[in-house]
Amino acid sequence: MKFYTTANKPKTDNNILVILLRSEGLEQQ
Prior knowledge:
By secondary structure, this protein is mostly helical. The chain has one helix at 10-28.
């Protein structure tokens, strides 16, 4: 799980973080 391999693509990293946050939110609900 290397999310920072796309260091020159901050938009992709942000999208991954958003997806992870949404996944955690869904699990909490």
